[in-house]
Amino acid sequence: MRKIIDLDDFERVVRGKLPRAVFDYVRRGSETETTLRTNRAVFDDWRFVTRVLVGVRERSQDVTLFGRRYSAPFGIAPMGGSALVAYDGHNVMARAAAAADIPFILSANSIIPLEEVAKQNPDTWFAVCQSATREAVTGIADRCARAGIRVLVVTADVPMHSNRESDARNGFGFRVRPTPRLTWDVAIHPRRMLGVLARTVFKRGIPRMVNLEPSGGPSLFSSRMKGSTAHPVLSWHHIRILRDH
């Protein structure tokens, strides 16, 4: 296996190992990807300010967030399709974050119950994406509280589903439909199909978005998937409900 030295090496290593549809789901953005390029470019505007002769025997990049001390000022962001990239992907990342002592955010668009992930990492954060009703807002908060999750991250950037052009070209989306192109893409990666998809179905049955709502969510193949994670009426009113609750 090629040596991993920086974050970009991960992309180069897995490019040929994943089906094209799954790789592009992780790697690509929406529309002409202007926002994706901008998000990456703004990091180049930051510089370290060098100070010399100050003594560096004791060094730390610890940071306190929400009353908890972490080993680094960054963590693992939510991505619903993690379980398509690696078997049990959400649990794997949760354990890795716990070992590295950094935050881990579980996406509501995930197929592993938040309660299970919270047992893997009791410090899991949860990115809520429930329906914009009082019952759903308070219900998902109660469910997280019962699981011991202390930090909620409100998903506010998808009032409408994004137009991911690469997914459309690859015949991939949610809901998942076995188009000829997608079927062939998976078939020519047999280790991925058996190691991830088959094991997932064997252990969990047909994958479902189990954390979308207080009571769960639809399967990846259901027509209910369309529009299930986009809530155009979500507003500050719902944030006030959440805070009051």
Overview of this structure, please?
This protein is mostly helical and 245 residues long. The chain has one domain (19-32, 78-244). The protein contains 11 helices and 5 strands, in the order αααββααβαβαβαααα. The strands form 2 sheets. The chain has a 3-stranded parallel sheet, covered by helices on one side. α5 (89-100) runs parallel beside α6 (114-120). The radius of gyration is 20 Å and the shape is globular. The relative contact order is 0.14. The model has no long low-confidence stretch (mean pLDDT 87).
Give the termini separation.
50 Å
Strand order of the largest sheet: 3-4-5
Strand content: 5-15%
Radius of gyration: 20 Å
Order of helices and strands: HHHEEHHEHEHEHHHH
Number of helices: 11
Report the strand count.
Answer: 5
**Mean pLDDT over all positions:** 87
Sheet of most strands: 3 strands, parallel
Characteristics of this structure?
single chain, 245 residues, mainly alpha, two-stranded antiparallel sheet, 11 helices, 41% helix, globular
Topology:
Elements: H1 7-14, H2 20-27, H3 34-42, E1 63-65, E2 68-70, H4 82-85, H5 89-100, E3 105-107, H6 114-120, E4 125-128, H7 134-147, E5 152-154, H8 165-170, H9 180-187, H10 190-204, H11 236-244
Helix pairs in contact: 5-6
Give a quick precis of the structure.
Helices cover 41% and strands 7% of the residues. The protein has helices at residues 7-14, 20-27, 34-42, 82-85, 89-100, 114-120, 134-147, 165-170, 180-187, 190-204, 236-244, and strands spanning 63-65, 68-70, 105-107, 125-128, 152-154. The chain has one domain (19-32, 78-244).
